[in-house]
Structure formats: C-alpha cells, structure tokens
Amino acid sequence: xxxxxxxxxxxxxxxxxxxxxxxxxxxxxxxxxxxxxxxxxxxxxxxxxxxxxxxxxxxxxxxxxxxxxxx
Length: 71
Prior knowledge:
This protein is mainly alpha-helical. Helices cover 42% and strands 7% of the residues.
C-alpha cells in the first residue's frame, strides 16, 4: 500500500528500513532519509509513525512513540 504519495513510498518500503535492528530509524525524518527522500506535504508522517510503532510492538521492544514527532 502506498503511504506517501509525494515520494511514492509503500508500507513495505517503510518496514524494510526497520528491518535492520541496529541501524533502524527512530524518527519519521530518519525513515525518509533512509529511503533517500524528505517529507513533502507531511500527511504520511502519522502513518509512517504508526507502522514504526507496530514494528516496535511486534518486536516486543518498547512503548510506541508519539505520533507528532516528524524530526
């Protein structure tokens, strides 16, 4: 599913950045950077954060982070 229309990023693209545990991005801004782009309109930031939180919970790592963080 496309989560960012501006950069044409899919949920699979986002999850792929989270696969490397040691180098996994901690913010949505870092996800964009890992994918070689930057936030344009910002509408996808909440969805990206949700995907990140789901990955954290699935890994049993930590509490989900605040969805308003875009840096």
